[in-house]
Design brief:
The complex is a heterodimer of chains A (about 280) and B (about 300).
Chain A: E1 3-4, E2 18-19, E3 23-27, H1 33-45, E4 49-51, H2 61-71, E5 76-83, E6 87-94, E7 100-109, E8 127-131, H3 138-151, E9 166-173, E10 176-185, H4 196-200, E11 203-206, E12 210-221, E13 224-230, H5 237-268
Parallel strand pairs in A: 3-4, 3-5, 8-9
Antiparallel strand pairs in A: 1-2, 5-6, 6-7, 7-12, 9-10, 10-11, 10-12, 12-13
Chain B: H1 2-15, H2 38-48, H3 53-63, H4 71-74, E1 76-79, H5 90-115, H6 133-197, H7 206-222, H8 243-257, H9 271-274, H10 292-301
Helix pairs in contact in B: 1-2
The chains are: A alpha+beta (about 280), B mainly alpha (about 300).
Keywords (chain A): Nucleus, Ribosome biogenesis
Protein name (chain A): Ribosome biogenesis protein BRX1
Pfam families (chain A): Brix
Chain lengths: ~280, ~300
Amino acid sequence: MGWKEGEVEKKSDSPIFRNKEKVLVTCSRRITYRYRHLMLNVVSLLPHCKKDSKVESKESKGATLNELVELRNCSSCLFFECRKQKDLYLWMAKSPSGPSVKFLVNAVHTMEELKLTGNHLKGSRPILTFSTNFDKEPHWKLLKEIIMQIFGTPKNHRKAKPFHDHAFVFSIVDNHIWFRNYQISVPHNETDKVDRRGLDKMTLVEVGPRFCLNPIKIFGGSFGGPTLYENPFYVSPNQIRALEKRKKAGKYAKKVKAKTRRKRHEMSNPLEPDEFADMWRE
Amino acid sequence: MVAFKETELLLDGETMMDDDVEDIDDEELVSESESEPEEVALAEPAKNAVYNKEGLLEKLDDISWPENVEWIHKLTVDHDQENEIDANDDLARELAFYTQALDGTHQAFEKLQPMGIPFLRPPDYYAEMVKSDTHMLKIKGKLLTKKKKMEEAEERKKAREAKKIAKEVQALKTKERAKRKKEEIESVKKWRKQRQQSGFARGKDDEVDSSFDAEMDFERTKKRRPGVAPGDRSGGLARKRGNEKGRKKREFRDTKFGHGGRKGMRKQNTVETTNDFRGFNVGGMSKNKMRKGRVMQKEARA
């Protein structure tokens, strides 16, 4: 479990709550550079994570990954699975018996992009902002809880730095979860006395990375188990590609058909002989 | 895992007929949600799409932290998203995210300040940052070049505009000058005609003369250019070309050969030098030049 109560389990108002969340971050083999950099960015954002080596994808994922998580004494896992070197799937799972979610990741922009100009302390605790539509449906609520536990840095973690200088944004737009990471910057001379005035002058600069998650399924167990939720709008990228190809394949057949149709039409409606056809014959 | 595979097959069968929208936009996402027959798409998969609400809520209770956990552990803020944001409108979407983050930070700040927790990083706190210094230098360089390019483009535009205006002004000026010249010539011609008509009367035609001269004087004194000699036809421009080099050469020659130049570079047989015998031996002309040896011997003996 991610939390430990104090020795005596009284119904007191303040049991000693210690956030002992540890996240295992791994990826599958044959992951491309973009997604590998994304994974490394995520590793640098979460000081309470442990990065592990690549996992073979041929074996049954569930068992090996669960074992790995147990071995490393972690309470959750972020698994980046890259298929066909094109599609990235992200698994978020709570160990040992927690639910797990599989997402399809799009719109990846890593921190190395030069247009994302912000910077923040490595290991400072982020402020997690969620949009209120996370509280509307049970599956969003569950996702919100999982995200909060995985992406929130524990308070007294060894590698955590004291200040709060960045904020995560998790927002639901078009049934996708969009992630942004902003640096909180205040003009230089104001940092000591951050009061109302300073607050107004506060600006946010994007640090990165950026990605968009499309939830596919939520399982009751870790990397498996009964399906609790399926996204009715989800279409796998393979199907999309197949449809595109089929559309293109139809092009030639249509062209041939159009040609034969034209010929038939011409034969059935012969043109009148042109009077002026011979005029310019040399 | 078995359950997973079955549902996937079913999903395949159902969604085969649906239309997909793929925005091949290099910026943003490949949207997997169906677009046009959305009503149809929703109806069919919804039947097969598992939605176990109780199970979800049960799991939620399992994993969530106890109720009385202080906010400081969670650090979550909720932001109310008023309108529906269109995922394809980049600007609006990013703006919405920005406002969400800003609002969240404000709320967090308000909660943290009474707790006395330091909020922002003081400028003298140096620690490892999530992006390396070299990377930040690259970013800075890029921003600076972008700024420079923009400024240069602006300047170029301004210069072009200024040039256009200057050209127009110049054209106007030349036209005016030409007009004035023509007028002057006309007035001279008129004056001559007048003189002719009045039979070249040698008397002082005050009105005509004075008017004429007055105009000319007025004309000439209009533009007094300080560095230009009055008789200078080029208007001071001739001096400008190759000034230093010519000066140096002239000075050198002057010092070497005296003011006036080397004798050798001048012409020898001119009008002045024809009857000029200054440099010749007077009285020694009768001697035969061919007998130079004997003369020298005689002179040597005597």
